[in-house]
């Protein structure tokens, strides 16, 4: 089975082109003003116009209100919504109904007790993104380049399609996939040369390693 790859936090055409050329199946755009990867609806509209058919364009939001979702979707033809805040399962269902789009819900893991949330959100989300919990005092709820203990997921059945995230890099991605048997991965800071600026060479190396056969 080939591992699917999402490259998140794209802000400029070179990074986007590298992700597409290397075989990413999902590309993500951050609509969260505090993030160094934030894009305006106008910037995002220019970028998504360059995405070929067959690659899903994902909008990442943190506890968005309905007005923000509508304002972005009025200008940007997204294929999926990613919710990366403290949205409840009921809010995930509301966002699905409001936007008519599939929703990816990010769930943070640090310890075994956190695994229960995968079941709760798996009942309503179309896809789960299993990430590290942000470090104490972090300014952002994601995109922090921090990994969790992948052994938490070893041997687990997950209710919905899912992506592994958190601190993945070209150097550790093969081991992360081997331990978790993740069907897909999501990466942001591990393929950057600076916050918000993707490094085409790191993207190519990451995707080559993530999609190589696992022994
Ligand atoms: O990337 C951001 O700036 C960001 C801001 C607010 C919420 C989530 C954010 N990113 C989430 C992601 O897309 C990341 O792929 C995921 O958390 C893993 O990040 P990283 O450890 O940097 O690969």
Characterize the structure shown.
The structure is a single chain. The chain has 215 residues and is α/β, with parallel strands linked by helices. The protein has helices spanning 13-22, 41-48, 66-75, 89-99, 116-122, 173-180, 200-211; strands at residues 4-7, 26-30, 56-61, 80-83, 103-109, 127-132, 162-165, 184-187, 192-194, 197-198. The protein has one domain (4-211): Alpha-Beta Barrel (TIM Barrel). Strand 1, helix 1 and strand 2 (26-30) form a beta-alpha-beta unit. It is globular. The mean pLDDT is 96. The ligand O=C(O)c1ccccc1NCC(=O)[C@H](O)[C@H](O)COP(=O)(O)O is lined by residues 8-9, 28, 30, 32, 35, 37, 60, 62, 84, 131, 140-146, 165-168, 186-190. Residues 8-9, 28, 30, 32, 35, 37, 60, 62, 84, 131, 140-146, 165-168, 186-190 line the site of the ligand O=C(O)c1ccccc1NCC(=O)[C@H](O)[C@H](O)COP(=O)(O)O.
- Main β-sheet, spatial strand arrangement: 1-2-3-4-5-6-7-8
Return the string of H and E elements: EHEHEHEHEHEEHEEEH
Tally of alpha and pi helices:
7
Largest sheet: 8 strands, parallel, barrel
Radius of gyration: 16 Å
Provide the list of bound ligands, each named once.
the ligand O=C(O)c1ccccc1NCC(=O)[C@H](O)[C@H](O)COP(=O)(O)O
Q: Give the beta-strand count.
A: 10
The residue ranges in which pLDDT falls below 50 over 5 or more consecutive positions are none
The CATH class turns out to be Alpha Beta
Question: How confident overall, as mean pLDDT?
Answer: 96
Tell the overall outline.
Answer: globular
Binned, the helix content reads 25-40%
β-strand amount: 15-25%
Which architecture would the CATH scheme give at its second level?
Alpha-Beta Barrel
Name the CATH superfamily assignment.
Aldolase class I
Which fold name fills CATH's third level, the topology? TIM Barrel
What structural class do you assign from the helix and strand content?
alpha/beta
Distance between the termini: 12 Å
Task: Please tell me the total number of domains.
Answer: 1
